[in-house]
Specification:
The protein is α+β, with helices and mostly antiparallel strands. About 35% of the residues lie in helices and about 25% in strands. The mean pLDDT is about 95. The structure holds ligand DP6.
């Protein structure tokens, strides 16, 4: 299905060589996207914190392709080195994006990308990577057809990023980003992410995310396979309803700054995501003993000392520790003293809520 709203008006005529560059952030979901339908449509809406320190920088150099080439012709470089391993995923993405950017057919592209976090950290780079590339492609389109308004460009970048990786739809805007149609959220769409339009207490703009690198290995199940496991999953419909209910409950907590309710919901989401993998067929245990040890310590620390700290997980063993700036001194001390012993080499990444993608 072609979405008219995102078709291109840029002419497919001759294009002078040039380049564009964007930086896009990673994001961490508070209510998780897990399960999708044909066309990369999520089975439930999700919401995330945009991160800051974890990001991808991409430079896209373009030039006319030789007339015989059937475009888009492209090469990918990671940290300055050719990275042919990324090409199949990017080819699929460009093929999906082509109806919306038909001028790509006549171009030869060089995609130079670098991540601020190590490739082997277990942090997925697909969200920030696809968002940075989508933003470059929209910037290139604007060169050919100037005058698009910023809001529409952002929507198109998120729309295209989603075709590459669902969660990438949430890596364009800053703060809290909502993706997926929800009757209670004005302007929400399955096709792209939007800045969460509800009331948000200022405390959430100060949130830190310390990512504890428990396991830096390749994940045993890719997200694409993981989403597929929700098809025919015995608890799928209950899970999709639960995510919607969690979003309904999160709204008031975000508005009032109720950090206890926030912690409850965010942790329940993380554990529900893992519960889905534990009960799918085949099943996957993605937590490690150290993941559980960290979770238990965080809960014990919160109950004993009342600090507003909570955890979330993505589809792996690493733990994201979330806390507001007002608690940062105490919580980071606790992380150093009690949690880093569970991370090989004490490895962790200090991140926080960020402002969204930016042009370089
Ligand atoms: C567990 O966006 O990586 O991080 O759409 O197949 O590329 P694809 O999957 P992906 O899935 C992310 C899943 C998650 C939860 C989330 O980010 O909402």
């Amino acid at each position: 299905m072609v979405h008219q709203e995102f078709l291109s008006r840029a002419a497919s005529g001759p294009i002078a060589p040039g380049e564009v560059a964007w930086q896009a952030p990673s994001n961490i979901a508070l209510v998780k996207y897990w399960g999708k339908r044909e066309g990369q449509i999520p089975t439930n809406p999700s919401i995330s914190f945009t991160l800051d320190a974890c990001n991808t920088r991409t430079r896209l150099a373009y030039a006319p392709a030789s007339p015989k080439a059937k475009g888009p012709v492209f090469r990918v470089f990671l940290d300055g080195e050719p990275a042919p391993g990324f090409e199949p995923k990017i080819r699929r993405f460009l093929d999906l994006a082509l109806p919306y950017l038909p001028f790509l057919e006549n171009l030869s592209l060089e995609i130079h990308t670098e991540n601020s976090f190590p490739h082997s950290s277990g942090i997925a780079s697909s969200a920030s990577g696809m968002a940075a590339l989508a933003l470059c492609l929209v910037a290139l389109e604007e060169r050919l057809d100037p005058g698009a308004d910023t809001a529409q460009s952002k929507r198109k970048a998120s729309f295209l990023a989603r075709l590459g990786s669902g969660s990438a739809a949430r890596s364009v805007d800053g703060g809290l980003v909502f993706w997926g149609e929800h009757p209670g959220i004005a302007g929400s769409s399955d096709l792209y992410g939007i800045r969460y339009p509800g009331e948000v207490h200022p405390v959430f703009g100060t949130y830190h995310d310390t990512v504890l690198l428990v396991d830096k290995g390749q994940k045993p199940v890719s997200s694409t396979v993981g989403h597929g496991l929700m098809n025919g999953h015995p608890f799928a419909s209950q899970r999709f309803n639960q995510a919607r209910r969690h979003l309904d409950l999160l709204g008031p907590a975000l508005a009032s700054g109720d950090l206890a309710a926030f912690a409850d919901l965010v942790e329940s989401e993380a554990l529900s995501l893992h519960a889905m993998m534990l009960t799918s067929s085949p099943s996957f245990i993605l937590m490690k003993p150290d993941t559980l040890a960290i979770i238990e310590k965080i809960r014990g620390y919160r109950e004993a000392g009342g600090q507003p700290v909570c955890f979330t997980l993505d589809a792996g063993a690493n733990v994201h520790v979330l806390y507001p700036a007002s608690a940062a001194g105490a919580v980071y001390g606790f992380i150093r003293e009690a949690l880093l012993e569970h991370c090989p080499g004490g490895q962790h990444i200090c991140d926080r809520v960020g402002a969204g993608a930016r042009r370089l």
